[in-house]
Amino acid sequence: MSFISIKEAIAKGKGKVSIRGWIHRERGSNKIKFIVLRDSTEIIQIVFPREKFEKQWEEIDKLQIEASIEVEGEIKEDKRAPSGYEISASKIKIVGESNEFPINKDLNEELLGDRRHLWLRSRKMTSAMKIRSSVMFAMHEYMHKNGFTEIEAPSLSGAASEGGSEVFETNYFGKKAYLTQSWQFYAENFIHAVGKAYAMAPSFRAEKSKTPWHVTEFWHFEVEGAWMDLLDDMKIAEGCISYAIQKVLKENETELKAVGANIEMLKKVKAPFKRVTYEEAIKKLNENGHKMKYGDDFGSSEERSLAKYYGDNFVFVTNYPLGLLKFYHGEDPKKPGTGTNFNLLAPGVGEMVDGSQREPDLKKIVERLKKAKIDLGASDWYLDSRRYGSVPHAGFGLGLERFVAWICGFDTIKDAIPFPRTPTRIYP
């Protein structure tokens, strides 16, 4: 047999085809067997009349969900079938048997997590992983088109990038080492060599959070550019988001339908996104019944609400009070006391991207470190980016799973990563 994918068979529409895959559903009687077969591209119903397969009937009748088979037969359109087409089988080869596949509709989230390696075979998870792949490829493509160089930093470091209790400590040949929280410290030095850099790599946060929007290991898309200001930074962020969404709409229509994504909402996402200041956002929240005062940090509910109040689309919030920001965020000379920073908020989710124009002045950074009682210690090398030819620069970070989950319309980012890691989940 010369095999084609199920999607290719459906596109052919009629005539003899040879396909292979795994059993998605099965039913029948002692006279006929109906099998819905899946591969990585689609599903299709196959009919096995007993009169054609008398010699193999016993083994065909015993076939269960997730058994793998090869089939040859005639394909034709049938609107009653799951994908609108049906194959009348003439040959079958049973490749791998399956007995009582341990995934069913009655399993709770915990039990599905225990069987994650098998749950990935579901149409929902397969479709989500394909969408994820398209998003990652789109981001790489967009960055290269805009002159950025991909450079990775190590996942193991001798010092925590920003300190705090949210780092994973490990033994590195008798010395303390930490899993990376961010690529940023390295990136702010990379850009003195390559100008504009980005990375797509894992980051680790030792947060004991049980919310649907946090995992301890996630894929971090981070960007940094020399000579970039806040507006440049925002333009790259919105351009990348928009480009990835358009890529998915173009290439993953089948998968978007399979996961139940809001395709019409995705079509409405267009750059540029609305921009408001932190002060304007506080005012908008209070106009809608929230009780916020200047200097308060936004929680997830405020962030989700803001995107809704501004038209159910992405919205940039800029110029947060410096007291809410990290020591490396720049100060806006036009609005003293506020940062040259932004959070990009998404409807239904909240924060999607966190970015800023960095503070280029070494003296100001040292003053802020002292004020915040932060000792960089072994991470002091980071400040070499200011000691030797400091330039204006900016960057941002985006959690890939959060973005993919938003595209798919999922209630949790756990469905946007193959094997999620949480405080209670380290296997499979």
SSE arrangement:
Elements: H1 6-12, E1 15-28, E2 32-38, E3 43-49, H2 57-61, E4 68-77, E5 85-96, H3 109-114, H4 116-119, H5 123-145, E6 149-150, E7 156-157, E8 169-172, E9 175-179, H6 184-194, E10 196-204, E11 217-226, H7 230-251, H8 253-259, H9 263-267, E12 274-277, H10 278-287, H11 300-309, E13 315-318, E14 341-346, E15 350-357, H12 362-371, H13 384-387, E16 393-399, H14 400-408
Parallel strand pairs: 3-5, 6-10, 12-13
Antiparallel strand pairs: 1-2, 1-4, 2-3, 4-5, 7-9, 8-9, 10-11, 11-16, 13-14, 14-15, 15-16
Helix pairs in contact: 5-7, 5-8, 5-14
- The sequence of SSEs as H and E is HEEEHEEHHHEEEEHEEHHHEHHEEEHHEH
- By oligomeric state, this entry counts as single chain
**Individual helix count:** 14
| Beta fraction | 25-35%
Report the biggest beta sheet as strand number plus sense, adding barrel if it closes. Answer: 8 strands, mixed
Which overall shape is indicated by the principal axes computed on the Cα atoms?
A: elongated
Q: What's the total count of β strands?
A: 16
Write down the Rg. Answer: 26 Å
The CATH H-level homologous superfamily of the largest domain: Bira Bifunctional Protein, Domain 2
CATH class of the largest domain: Alpha Beta
CATH A-level architecture of the largest domain: 2-Layer Sandwich
Residues in helix, %: 25-40%
Strand order of the largest sheet: 6-10-11-16-15-14-13-12
Average pLDDT confidence is 95
CATH topology of the largest domain: BirA Bifunctional Protein, domain 2
Low-confidence stretches: none
What does this structure look like?
The chain has two domains: 6-96, Beta Barrel (OB fold (Dihydrolipoamide Acetyltransferase, E2P)); 116-416, BirA Bifunctional Protein, domain 2, CATH 3.30.930.10. The protein has 14 helices and 16 strands. It has helices at 6-12, 57-61, 109-114, 116-119, 123-145, 184-194, 230-251, 253-259, 263-267, 278-287, 300-309, 362-371, 384-387, 400-408; strands spanning 15-28, 32-38, 43-49, 68-77, 85-96, 149-150, 156-157, 169-172, 175-179, 196-204, 217-226, 274-277, 315-318, 341-346, 350-357, 393-399. It is elongated, with a radius of gyration of 26 Å. The protein starts with 5 loop residues before the first helix and ends in a 20-residue tail after the last helix.
